[in-house]
TrEMBL record:
GO molecular function, one term: G protein-coupled receptor activity
Domain G-protein coupled receptors family 1 profile, residue spans: 41-290
Descriptive protein name: Olfactory receptor
Protein encoded by which gene: LOC113430677
Family the entry assigns: Belongs to the G-protein coupled receptor 1 family.
One GO cellular component, as annotated: plasma membrane
Compartmental location: Cell membrane
Length: 314
């Protein structure tokens, strides 16, 4: 069944996170709660960044794109996982598997690239403040953000084409809770060694190139910080970059561990736990990290609350 005669009649069965009913109920409640908190937290950031004119800066422009990404990222997989936990089984058509896995891969690749862009933005703001406004103008912001989305989509499409040109004639069981495209290669009846090498190389490129940009940017930022004489200014720079660095460590730590370092050594159960980290936990942590440490967002929240209280007074 090659790409030209591949039909939607093929079904893939997801084994999920647990086969025990009581555990499924607990996981259903946990995943539903985390999903709702993730959507609400990121929506709050998007609303605040749009209504407060003081937050209309490049850093917060990219942060709004990150919040949109996180909402879309969890929505691409978590609602389906919740439905499967409730139903007690996880069956997806080939089209559903392509849509779920392709969307998740596209958004995950976009987030990798966007975090690299955000690090470059912080590098320009701290290390080249005099040319920051011209280097990161409105046109450049939109160009960088759109490029991340387009490249992420192209990476996903390339993976889909490479995977679904193979024949699927063996078992259709996937030991995962969502349809991650790379796991489908284990279900083919063709020689997939070359395809795996190509896709692994592409994954390494998408993950390691922006990660290298992040490392270089923060190396320059640290060098600039150590040259600062003012303790207050050092603290301000640390507080500005700390939130982004925390998000990078959590997201890239899990992504690199599963796709670059330990891909062939993780057991299926460990693999699923790592996937929960970058698919569910990280999008939930992002708004928490940025709101807890960001004084500008604190001021925006207070401003909105004061305005609302003023409007409610007779």
């Amino acid at each position: 069944m090659h790409a030209e005669n591949f039909t939607s009649e093929t079904r893939f069965v997801l084994l999920g996170l647990s086969s025990h009913q009581n555990q499924c109920i607990v996981l259903f409640v946990v995943f539903l709660t985390m999903y709702l908190l993730t959507v609400l937290g990121n929506l709050l950031i998007i609303i605040l960044l749009n209504i407060d004119a003081q937050l209309h800066t490049p850093m917060y422009f990219f942060l709004s794109h990150l919040a949109i990404l996180d909402i879309a990222y969890v929505t691409s997989s978590v609602p389906q996982t919740i439905a499967h936990l409730l139903a007690g089984n996880g069956v997806l058509s080939s089209i559903g598997c392509i849509l779920q896995g392709g969307t998740a891969l596209s958004l995950g690749s976009t987030e990798c690239l966007l975090l690299g862009v955000m690090a470059y933005d912080r590098y320009l703001a701290i290390c080249s403040p005099l040319r920051y406004a011209s280097a990161m103008n409105r046109k450049c912001q939109h160009l960088l953000a759109i490029s991340c989305w387009i490249i992420g989509f192209l990476v996903s499409m390339f993976n889909v084409i490479c995977i679904f040109r193979h024949s699927f004639c063996g078992p259709n069981l996937i030991n995962h809770f969502f349809c991650e495209l790379h796991f489908l290669l284990d279900l083919t009846c063709d020689d997939v060694k070359r395809t795996k090498d190509i896709l692994n190389g592409l994954s390494a490129f998408v993950v390691l190139v922006p990660f290298s940009v992040i490392l270089c940017s923060y190396s320059c930022i640290l060098h600039s910080i150590f040259q600062m004489q003012s303790v207050a200014r050092r603290y301000k720079v640390f507080s500005t970059c700390g939130s982004h660095l925390a998000v990078v460590i959590v997201f890239y730590g899990t992504i690199i561990s599963i796709y670059i370092i330990l891909q062939s050594h993780l057991s299926p159960d460990r693999n699923k736990k790592v996937a929960v980290m970058y698919l569910v936990v990280t999008p939930l942590l992002n708004p928490i990290i940025y709101t807890l440490r960001n004084k500008n967002i604190h001021r925006a929240v207070i401003k909105v609350l004061k305005r609302r209280n003023f409007e409610e007074k007779p």
